Amino acid sequence: MASQEQLTVRRAVRDAIAGLDAARVVLAACSGGADSLALAAALGWIRQRDVRPAGGVVVDHGLQPGSAERAREAAVLLTRFGLDPVEVVHVRVKERGHGPEGNARAARYDALDAAADRHAASAVLLGHTRDDQAENVLLGLARGSGPRSLGGMPAVSGRYRRPLLGVSRATARAALPPDVKPWEDPHNADPAFARARVRHRVLPVLEAELGPGVAEALSRTAALLRADADALDAWADQAMSTLRVDQHDGDIALDIPSLAELPEAVRTRAIRRAAIEAGCPSTDLTAAHVAAVDALISQWHGQRGIDLPGPVRAARSGRVLRFEPSR
After folding, report:
1. What CATH number did the domain enclosing 269 receive?
2. What's the structural domain count of the chain?
3. Is there a single domain that holds both residue 53 and residue 121?
4. Does position 144 have pLDDT exceeding 80, yes or no?
């Protein structure tokens, strides 16, 4: 008989893939850790009960000794759970300027995208839990991030789905078959990483001082902020269609009086979109950059333009805010 934890995880996974094309494969991304193994085990159970194609992908980043062997062991477990096809993908983590974790994440998603394309998958399932979401919110608060970052990870993003965002890490771990021993990534306990400090030091202190349920409350806050951010983004997208003026030679030009009428939250989003469209790398464009450009609209006193990453320059000319390559 299935435990309550197993039933909870299975229900979450089944709900996440409901409505997908039952003839196309769903893939579970697995690291060999407890969360992703619990996800894979639930998907394997659903595959056999619902008679629908479901497989798994294990990505080996090659960053730690023995990683290739651990990846093979994880693949054996996925096959045992009833998933098919199952493949191990070995990747080479390249320097992309995002730090060790960010570079590894980019390599992982590249590999998962390629696997999804090879198998014509309808979705790739990721094992992030409610606790992961809470950690993201705390990290975003510490960095002074905006509502989009504080909104955490979405349950659905393109082909990616996160069935366990409403499930605690403890529940996912308890859902594993008793004879399955998950891999414990040493990075998750290494205080050199901010996420590890949040997980093992910050959240336990908050739970002890404020009472249980902090992770659940933070996750709920993320969902509320994400809904607000989605609405503001949609407003900014709609506004952009009426803001553009005499665009030429690849420059982006926006009407300043129309920009000035927008609420700040929408106006700054429009500025960010225009800067990125003009060539600013989204990862390098900070809130400080956007605020400096916004001052050309809301606090205009004849100041010079703003140099942005890319390189792109934003400058005011009469009633027009123009984004153009730096010269």
Report:
1. 3.30.465.60
2. 2
3. yes
4. no
Confidence of residue 147 (pLDDT cuts 50, 70, 90): confident
Q: Residue 250's pLDDT is what?
A: 65
First and final CA of the chain: distance in angstroms?
70
174-220, pLDDT tens digit by residue? 999 999 999 888 888 888 888 899 999 999 999 999 999 999 999 99
Hey, how many other C-beta atoms are within 10 angstroms of the C-beta on 148? Answer: 17
Question: What mean pLDDT value characterizes the chain?
Answer: 91
Q: What is the CATH number of the domain that holds 47?
A: 3.40.50.620
Range of the domain at 282: 244-325
pTM of the model: 0.85
CA dihedral 311, 314, 317, 318 (to 10 degrees): 170
Is residue 136 within a helix (H) or strand (E), and if so which, with residue range? helix 130-143
Query: Quick check: is 226 in a domain?
Result: no
Q: Looking at the structure, do residues 314 and 189 belong to the same domain, yes or no?
A: no
Per-position DSSP letters for 217-268, written without gaps between them:
HHHHHHHHHHHHHHHHHHHHHHHHHHHB-S--TT-EEEEHHHHHHS-HHHHH
Which DSSP string do the residues of 150-193 spell out, in sequence order? HT---SEETTEE-GGGGS-HHHHHHTS-TT------GGGG-TTS
pLDDT at 263: 96
Same domain, 203 and 317: no
